[in-house]
Amino acid sequence: MDSFNSSPTSSIRKGISGYRNNSNKSDDSTIYNRQEQQGGGSKYLHDDSDLSNDANGQVGKGLQRNLEARHLTMISLGGTIGTGLFLASGASIATAGPGFSQVAYSLIGSMVYCFMSSLGEMTTYLPITGSINAYGTRFFDPALGFMLGWVYWFSWSVTLATELVASAVIISYWVPIEQCPGWVWSMVFIVVLTSLNLTSVKAYGETEYWLSLIKVLAVFVFIIVGFLYIGGAIGTVAPGELKPGPEIFDLDPFHGGFTALFSIFLNAGFSFQGAELVGIAAGETKNPRKNVPRAIRQVFWRILMFYVLTILIIGMTIPYNDPELANPDGSIESSPFTRVFLRAGIAVGGDIMNAVILVAVLSAGNSGLYASSRALHTLSQEGNAPKFFGYVNRYGVPVYCVAATALVGCLAFIVSLPQIGQGQAYDWLLALASTTGFIAWLGIAFSHIRFRMAYKAQGRSLDDLPFVSNLYPFGPIYTIVICMVILLGQGYTAFSPFSIKMFLSAYVTLPFVVILYFGNKFWCKTKILRLVDVDLDTGRSFVEYDEEDLADGEKKPSWWKRFINFLC
């Protein structure tokens, strides 16, 4: 039975007792201590058994549970709204038509819901930082955790680089490259993002909340303007042009056939990347047992609504064969968002959307730096990365992990190489980040299957889970099938005719993944865990209520907060 440190002034804690402890640890293996930060008076939770925290909360050891529910929701929601939506969505429609684009984004969206449901069940029960790789280590094989951790770190590190490349492209809308090279802006933004991530996790969460809110409002306004334009309420159609609506959509909704569908899955996958940030941030979130399910329930349908409606509006306002829709150079003028605003008669639409896209890039890069640094921190705690990466300063920040990841972000400097060019560099980084993202999602689905199998093998009841995925076993199986089909089939265009550049772009990460897993397995002689030996106790979450929470729950939020909650 779990025991908790308590005092006359302690909060009311609720836990689940009577479970079997298979790890032969003491009864007080999970202890939550309520501590006061010096100077600020704010409170945070420590969990001894969590890999992200230490027992005493000493400087240089433990991360801090300072993220609130609204931070968690925005981190997940905002992390998926970036350059993939604002810059790459038009290319998907140009390649496969608006119909197939809807199919691709809907399939990826449904898969995202499945693996988020799986992740929600695990992170609510075991809210540990760096959960993507930690669950692979705990539920299956330490070699799997090693591989997933490094793949996930690489994925978000490359995503950070893509955002820096995009930032240089965006700034060139106002300041031509001839006046200031792109690498200068990449350097400026990497310094800004690194500085933000070197503050406390609460400061990161607050910054990400407002940046993400700007992106959400921008997409919301775009949807309203788009429907008004399609309905004829605003904007004018030039003589000889097709009317917005079904007339444009029906030109060739399924352009290119079934093969074109495969070619746009990478764009769709990259656009949704970041939804799993809920699992990464759960280890630094207050009351994860309550807040993680709330964030997951709120995020999915809003993401799907944003993407489905956005693709629908673009497909009904800009013909798929428009030469500028593909936007091979990544220019803001050719962004479908900018062009819809201009067609609707909003002359400053280009400047507005350029500013919004810049915010989106900084937000996505900020989330990438956060996620990758926490994955690297967990790797260090598990002994799969140098020990100094496990150091955490007095503000709960793994400073060396942030610095190392920021260095990888310097990949964006290839934007300054004239023989590569911005558009091609972005395409390469986009392909790399999308592929590794699918591998991380595979890991989540497989870990969920192992978690449920171990949970059943140890005679535990699903009634004891704080959040149950109703899609099991269909959800994780569906995720695995979709991810495998995309990973193996998305590079088909490299074979007819054969192109070594396209082949490497599509499949270079797959042998890398195999080498990481089997290399670690043979080097460290790891073994697949028996289901009865899987540790399902260390790091378990428990609900914590205090008087302030109960009082806040009785208050009716103001109208503007209810509006923000509706959007976000």
From TrEMBL:
<keyword id="KW-0812">Transmembrane</keyword>
<feature type="transmembrane region" description="Helical">
    <location>
        <begin position="428"/>
        <end position="449"/>
    </location>
</feature>
<protein>
    <recommendedName>
        <fullName>Amino acid permease/ SLC12A domain-containing protein</fullName>
    </recommendedName>
</protein>
<feature type="transmembrane region" description="Helical">
    <location>
        <begin position="74"/>
        <end position="97"/>
    </location>
</feature>
<feature type="compositionally biased region" description="Polar residues">
    <location>
        <begin position="1"/>
        <end position="12"/>
    </location>
</feature>
<feature type="transmembrane region" description="Helical">
    <location>
        <begin position="182"/>
        <end position="204"/>
    </location>
</feature>
<dbReference type="InterPro" id="IPR004841">
    <property type="entry name" value="AA-permease/SLC12A_dom"/>
</dbReference>
<feature type="transmembrane region" description="Helical">
    <location>
        <begin position="103"/>
        <end position="128"/>
    </location>
</feature>
<keyword id="KW-1133">Transmembrane helix</keyword>
<feature type="transmembrane region" description="Helical">
    <location>
        <begin position="258"/>
        <end position="278"/>
    </location>
</feature>
<keyword id="KW-0813">Transport</keyword>
<feature type="transmembrane region" description="Helical">
    <location>
        <begin position="498"/>
        <end position="518"/>
    </location>
</feature>
<feature type="transmembrane region" description="Helical">
    <location>
        <begin position="299"/>
        <end position="320"/>
    </location>
</feature>
<dbReference type="Pfam" id="PF00324">
    <property type="entry name" value="AA_permease"/>
</dbReference>
<feature type="transmembrane region" description="Helical">
    <location>
        <begin position="216"/>
        <end position="238"/>
    </location>
</feature>
<feature type="domain" description="Amino acid permease/ SLC12A">
    <location>
        <begin position="71"/>
        <end position="530"/>
    </location>
</feature>
<dbReference type="InterPro" id="IPR050524">
    <property type="entry name" value="APC_YAT"/>
</dbReference>
<feature type="region of interest" description="Disordered">
    <location>
        <begin position="1"/>
        <end position="57"/>
    </location>
</feature>
<feature type="transmembrane region" description="Helical">
    <location>
        <begin position="149"/>
        <end position="176"/>
    </location>
</feature>
<feature type="transmembrane region" description="Helical">
    <location>
        <begin position="340"/>
        <end position="364"/>
    </location>
</feature>
<keyword id="KW-0472">Membrane</keyword>
<keyword id="KW-0029">Amino-acid transport</keyword>
<feature type="transmembrane region" description="Helical">
    <location>
        <begin position="470"/>
        <end position="492"/>
    </location>
</feature>
<feature type="compositionally biased region" description="Polar residues">
    <location>
        <begin position="19"/>
        <end position="37"/>
    </location>
</feature>
<feature type="transmembrane region" description="Helical">
    <location>
        <begin position="397"/>
        <end position="416"/>
    </location>
</feature>
